[in-house]
């Protein structure tokens, strides 16, 4: 774009055509923005005048459909919100527009960000149906940022926005062979994003490469990427000898994800050692207690936060009305009928209660100590673990097979995590999850760029490939 050999209009047109031809097999994109080409033309005019606003000026971006976007439906996958679009953009969308990014469209998601049923099926929503994994079409894309990850894997956009409460960015990134960054809590504004929990929710960038995720984060955060040190372009530069040399990485193997994933994790560690990293095995403490505490806290927080959000939209005005809506609309039960989490949240202790406050205080303390103590004891730059098992077969009757503990410590602590592609089990991608201390996003992205370069010489070109994605 800087030299004029590529225009935003040409790139946007290519993605729109690819969505039209490829996405009917994947069901990742709910709708495209009818103004996308006008946005691209405006960016091209700025480029010609030398008035570009940011590295994202003219770059097409897809938004998960729980991010308020003026003039476009924002549904969280639910028919309850499929009526009038929001009146205003979410704060992060305003930042993208101000940076000159092209809002290309909205992506499907696990309905209500996977916080509705006890046994949901990731990537399914009443609005968008089932998103497929582009690598093997009958396999699941994980969730809840299913469409964002699958769209990137199929080269339907340059970057995408996902959201996470626990695992909803990094798991689909890993399972679709792309990059996903869950930022430190509060680094990206939650305003205008359909909530689960203000104590854990964050939006974040997803991309095909770490550098694109980092550039997107710099826009989403208003230019603040803490602890960056200007090092991303150096440590992540191909061939730079210091990218991994001397870095200390704690390997949390998680053999419960299966012998094939464990074997890939061990091979990954050897490749990092071969690049000069010191890799030591670790087991972060307190994981059983975190698993006991997180769900009760989220139930109380969801009731508080979803009531506040629904009051700003046309449709059900609170959680009780939303439960009744689902009972009276059969299409909401087309894949799975349950809304057990809604019902449990309605009966959960309020966030003003001493019972809730004690749970959240212990949860926050133990999650932070889990990471802080492990990193201090072993003098680590980051903790690494497998992001995901190989994608399971999508099955509405069974639901997900998604007991994946690696995302929880950073998600509950509000610390950053980053999934980069690590390789394959048969045809199915597996990610390597990196996590670090509070507001160490820049250093984590720098390390992730170096890891990505070491692990992923096999990866596709940065820009739009011509061959259709998927093996199905």
List the SSEs and their pairings.
Layout: H1 8-22, E1 29-32, H2 36-49, E2 60-64, H3 91-98, E3 102-107, E4 124-125, E5 129-130, H4 146-153, E6 159-164, H5 170-175, E7 179-182, E8 202-207, H6 210-220, H7 232-235, E9 248-251, H8 259-274, E10 278-281, H9 287-310, H10 319-327, H11 340-347, H12 354-378, E11 382-386, H13 408-413, E12 417-425, E13 428-435, H14 441-455
Parallel strand pairs: 2-3, 2-6, 9-10, 9-11
Antiparallel strand pairs: 1-3, 4-5, 6-8, 7-8, 7-12, 11-13, 12-13
Helix pairs in contact: 1-2, 6-14, 9-11, 9-12
If you average the pLDDT, what whole number results? 93
Strands of the widest sheet, in order across it, are 1-3-2-6-8-7-12-13-11-9-10
- Which quaternary structure do these chains form? single chain
Strand content: 5-15%
| CATH secondary-structure class | Alpha Beta
Specify the CATH architecture. Answer: Alpha-Beta Complex
> What's the overall geometry?
globular
Radius of gyration: 21 Å
Classify the fold: give the CATH topology.
Answer: Amidase signature (AS) enzymes
What is the makeup of the main sheet?
11 strands, mixed
Percent of residues in helices comes to 25-40%
CATH superfamily: Amidase signature (AS) domain
Helical element count? 14
Question: In sequence order, what are the helices and strands, one letter per element?
Answer: HEHEHEEEHEHEEHHEHEHHHHEHEEH
| Total strands | 13
Structural class: alpha/beta
Stretches where pLDDT falls below 50 for ≥5 residues?
228-242, 460-472
Tally of individual domains: 1
Enzyme class: hydrolase
Protein name: Amidase
GO molecular function: amidase activity
Domain Amidase: 11-445
